[in-house]
Structures are given as structure tokens and as C-alpha cells.
């Protein structure tokens, strides 16, 4: 009888120890999950451009203060285009933030290049964009010499949609030119996307847009003497005449 009682007590003690062991393991698992969550969160917040992306060495474009290069996300292997802006005295920090904010307001429109994320580091800024493969519209204008009426109308339709979207938000691009319009595909002219809001202004159109902001090489003879800028600065037909010096953008293509 005594032996039976001792055996039951022993079994009960073993069961208690077993349950305590299970409870301890559960608590340890919870703590591990919490630790992992904290680590992932802090690592994400502390990420820098070199930790998230690697440059491939392909140069897509260069400017006075910036270059555009191809980069690859180290986690997904997806390609993007990164605009690298050097921190130099002639290029203000506020100007970069203004461009980032403008792209944020344009998020989701199919004819405006999309900003994926933004990094600021000690010596430079990194603006990571979606990458399109068709190159600037200027290259197509030089290749085609002139477009058919259908081709030109499709381009104008895309640009008009993007500009209407911008203007409703009170944003003027102010440097719309073939170099700042990108073709999405190598095989087709359209769709096209507007890029580079470096000179963009969030000023409503009832304001006085009279500051001389433009690309000097694209000024018409009249504009050279009168740099007062109005909505006509975004005149779509001027895109083609300024690139090729001809207003004819349709008709049968020779060759």
C-alpha cells in the first residue's frame, strides 16, 4: 500500500516537472520571437543604402550634382535605378527633400516614375526608383527623326495624363523635355513616364511662376529675351520641336 502511494506521488512529481518544462519552453520561444522582432525592426530602421542595395556599375545618366545608376536589391535581386546626389555646397539639402516630397505626392500614377525609397548618408543622398528599360524619349526622337500621327498622339496622351495629375495637385514640373521623359519598353514608344522633378515647384498656377527656371538650350528666341514662365512652359508640342528643330511629328517614316 505504501509503495503504491509513493509511486503515485513520484508520478505526480514527474508530471509537474514535465508541465513546468513545457511552460518554460513556451516562455523561451516567446522571448526568442520578441527578440527576433525587435532585431528585425531595428535592423530595418538602421539600414543604409549599401546594406540594402549593390551597384552594378551601369551608368544610366549623369548631371551636375548627381548620377543615375543601376542597383540591385540584395534580398530580392530586383533591379532599380538609383539617383545618387552628392552633398556639395551648390546643391541644397532642402532641394532634395522637395524632390522626394513631390514624388511622394505622385505615387501610383502610371505615367510618372515611381520613387521606391530614399536614403540620406553622410556624403550623399540616394533616391531609389523603379527602373524602365526604354531610355529617354530624346533617343527615340533622334532614332525615328519624326513620329507618325498615331505615335505622337499616344505619347501626348500619356504626358497630358501625367501633367493633368500634377497640375491638379498644384505641381509644375518646369523642366519638361525629351531627356526627362522615359520610355518603359525597348520595343514600343509607349507608355512613357515623366521623371526628374529637381526643378519642380509646388506652387499653384494662380501664383506668379516668373522665376527663370528652365534648360537654357531649350529656350526659344522669344523666351531668351523674356524668361517669364507660365503654364506654356509645359507646352507639349514644344517637346518635339525643341528636340528636332521641326514641328512636323507625323507622316510616313522614310527608310
TrEMBL record:
Residue span(s) of domain Protein kinase: 54-255
InterPro entries in alphabetical order: CDPK_Ser/Thr_kinases, Kinase-like_dom_sf, Prot_kinase_dom, Protein_kinase_ATP_BS, Ser/Thr_kinase_AS
Stretch forming the signal peptide: none
Keyword Nucleotide-binding on entry: yes
Domain of life: Eukaryota
SMART domains, sorted: S_TKc
One of the record's GO molecular function terms: protein serine/threonine kinase activity
Record: residues binding ATP: 83
Record family assignment: Belongs to the protein kinase superfamily. CAMK Ser/Thr protein kinase family.
Protein name: Protein kinase domain-containing protein
Originating organism: Cloeon dipterum
Amino acid at each position: 500500500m505504501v509503495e503504491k502511494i509513493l509511486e503515485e506521488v513520484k508520478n505526480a512529481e514527474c508530471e509537474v516537472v514535465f508541465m513546468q518544462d513545457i511552460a518554460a519552453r513556451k516562455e523561451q520561444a516567446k522571448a526568442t520571437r520578441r527578440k527576433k522582432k525587435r532585431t528585425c525592426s531595428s535592423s530595418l530602421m538602421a539600414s543604409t543604402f549599401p546594406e540594402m542595395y549593390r551597384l552594378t556599375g551601369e551608368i544610366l545618366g549623369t548631371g551636375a550634382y548627381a548620377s543615375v545608376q543601376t542597383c540591385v536589391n540584395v534580398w530580392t535581386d530586383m533591379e532599380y535605378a538609383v539617383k545618387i546626389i552628392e552633398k556639395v555646397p551648390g546643391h541644397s539639402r532642402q532641394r532634395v527633400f522637395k524632390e522626394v516630397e513631390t514624388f511622394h505626392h505622385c505615387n501610383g500614377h502610371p505615367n510618372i516614375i515611381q520613387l521606391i525609397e530614399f536614403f540620406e548618408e553622410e556624403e550623399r543622398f540616394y533616391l531609389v526608383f523603379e527602373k524602365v528599360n526604354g531610355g529617354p524619349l530624346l533617343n527615340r526622337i533622334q532614332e525615328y527623326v519624326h513620329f507618325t500621327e498615331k505615335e505622337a498622339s499616344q505619347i501626348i496622351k500619356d504626358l497630358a495624363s501625367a501633367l493633368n495629375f500634377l497640375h491638379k495637385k498644384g505641381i509644375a514640373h518646369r523642366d519638361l523635355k525629351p531627356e526627362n521623359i522615359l520610355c518603359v519598353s525597348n520595343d514600343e514608344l509607349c507608355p512613357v513616364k515623366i521623371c526628374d522633378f529637381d526643378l519642380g515647384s509646388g506652387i499653384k498656377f494662380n501664383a506668379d511662376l516668373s522665376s527663370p527656371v528652365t534648360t537654357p538650350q531649350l529656350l526659344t528666341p522669344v523666351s531668351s529675351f523674356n524668361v517669364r514662365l507660365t503654364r506654356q512652359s509645359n507646352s507639349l508640342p514644344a517637346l518635339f520641336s525643341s528636340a528636332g528643330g521641326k514641328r512636323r511629328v507625323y507622316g510616313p517614316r522614310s527608310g
